[in-house]
Design goal:
38% of the residues lie in helices and 19% in strands. The chain is an alpha/beta fold. It folds into two domains: 6-229 and 264-302, Carbamate kinase (3-Layer(aba) Sandwich); 312-456, VC0802-like, CATH 3.30.2130. Strands 3-4-2-1-7-9-10-8 form an eight-stranded mixed sheet, with helices on both faces. It has a four-stranded antiparallel sheet with strand order 11-16-18-17, with helices on both faces.
């Protein structure tokens, strides 16, 4: 059997009958027998999440959700699966999953509480149903396929609910032994299973990450991400003028872009595949499709554009928590106390920028008030003021060679200055491939337009002295 690849199919291309038909068409022309890791159908996970949030407010919420999911899957099954036996088998599998979901939700409604364990278990059903329906469609269209759930395949996690990490070392043997048949496999993404046999989610958008973990464990030829957009670009087409496609990124560049808001990949996707240098290939399957026409390739090869920068992106979810006081950045132990209390309460710090009189923490906006209260409760004498800034946006400029190229930083700062935009914080050199600025949220679009024009729409070429071995 030829070496496999892993294909990830996201919810953005699981919207309607036409998109599924396109997936079948492309899959039939595929040269290998892939493992296909799938997201929930578009909007399904969010609908389940909303139902959980309103479970105790509306008595018929369980029935409403059951009916919504059953009707959504029934429409696809009836329209796309013509073989009566395959159709009935698919209906039976869907009904089994929905009945299990309904019973679980009824139990939660009775106890009036949603434990973390239950939350993860319930939210995994979107991907399970997606895999069952797609497997039925594939089989009906003459594609030799089977289905394997992550709990059976042995995708082991560290057991953290809501945002688990895959234990690659513990997973690799069983995963490799679970995909030995000469067929295509369909696998639900988004979750794994702890060593206690409990389902744990891999974070929002975690199907990319789970696909990368399967790719690592199977030592595949490539991880292919099927999307409805043209891979990474120099900027968001919805904001900037004439963005250019990016044909190549390093793992580091892709990770930084994903981390700072580019919606093409989950930020942790590159972790498993970079260990064994498995390339990530991004395709737009709604274009004239050819497996030789990859939109973006991500691997360990360093490529440097003449203009050095490759892309700009924006993160609207990060705020600034400024901790003020004479000597707070100098007195030993203050930062340690702060990070300790935040760690106890599972609050992640995105970045830290310090000075003599200020410690600035970059935190997700939804937990920044909680973090501020926790630090105030520490009653550290040196802290005189704590300021929360939520009306801000973080703009990241990514590209290999930025710290080695003369003039790139100056051009970035000049472009923003020319528009009269104030920079709250900036970081140049914290990473070899990224510079970021934090500006007022109201100035985001203006800053992005000006930066894109300055960096990509003028003839910028820099002298670069590289120190790569």
């Amino acid at each position: 059997m030829q070496k496999r690849n892993v294909i990830k199919i996201g919810g953005s291309i699981l919207k309607n009958i036409q998109s599924i038909q396109q997936i079948v068409k492309v899959l039939k022309s595929h040269e290998h027998l892939p493992v296909i890791v799938v997201s929930a159908f578009y909007g399904v996970t969010e609908r389940i999440r909303q139902s959980l949030e309103n479970l105790f407010k509306e008595e018929d919420m369980v029935t409403t959700l059951y009916d919504f999911l059953y009707q959504k899957k029934s429409k696809i099954i009836l329209e796309l699966i013509k073989d009566v036996d395959i159709r009935n088998e698919t209906f039976t599998q869907v009904a089994q999953q929905l009945n299990e979901l309904r019973q679980y939700l009824q139990g939660i409604f009775f106890i009036r509480h949603v434990p973390e364990k239950a939350n993860d278990f319930i939210l995994s059903f979107g991907e399970k149903l997606s895999a069952i329906v797609l497997n039925g469609v594939f089989r009906d269209k003459g594609i030799n396929s089977g289905i394997v759930f992550p709990e059976k395949a042995g995708l082991i996690t560290d057991g953290v609910f809501g945002n688990a990490s895959v234990d690659l070392k513990s997973s690799i043997k069983k995963v490799a032994d679970s995909f030995t048949e000469n067929q295509i496999y369909v696998v639900p993404g988004f979750y794994g299973v702890s060593k206690k046999k409990e389902i744990t989610l891999l974070g929002k958008g975690g199907t990319d990450y789970s696909a990368a973990a399967f790719a690592h464990c199977l030592n595949v030829k490539s991880l292919d991400i099927w999307k409805d957009v043209d891979g990474f670009m120099t900027g968001d087409p919805k904001i900037v003028t004439n963005p250019k496609p990016i044909r190549h990124l390093t793992y580091s560049e892709a990770a930084e872009l994903a981390y700072f808001g580019a919606g093409i990949l989950h930020p942790r996707t590159v972790e498993p595949v970079s260990i064994t240098n498995i390339p990530i290939r991004i395709f737009n399957i709604f274009k004239d499709y050819s497996f030789d026409e990859v939109q973006t390739v991500i691997d360990n090869k360093i490529s440097i554009h003449p203009e050095v920068t490759k892309s700009i992106t924006v993160d609207n979810n990060t705020g600034i928590l400024s901790i003020k006081g004479p000597g707070v950045g100098y007195i030993p132990g203050i930062l340690s106390e702060i990070t300790k209390i935040l760690n106890i309460h599972a609050i992640n710090i995105n970045s830290v920028i310090t000075s003599q009189i200020s410690i600035n923490l970059l935190l997700n906006k939804d937990i920044i008030e909680k973090a501020s209260n926790l630090i105030q409760e520490l009653n550290i004498p040196a802290i005189t003021n704590i300021i929360v800034k939520k009306e801000v946006a973080l703009i990241a400029i990514v590209g290999n060679g930025m710290t080695e190229a003369y003039g790139v930083g100056a051009r970035i700062l000049s472009a923003v200055s020319e528009e009269g935009i104030n920079i709250h914080l900036s970081s140049i050199g914290a990473s070899d491939v990224v510079t970021y600025l934090i500006v007022d949220e109201k100035n985001t679009k203006k800053a992005l337009l000006k930066l894109h024009e300055a960096l990509f729409q003028t003839n910028n070429q820099y002298q670069i002295k590289l120190n790569y071995a």
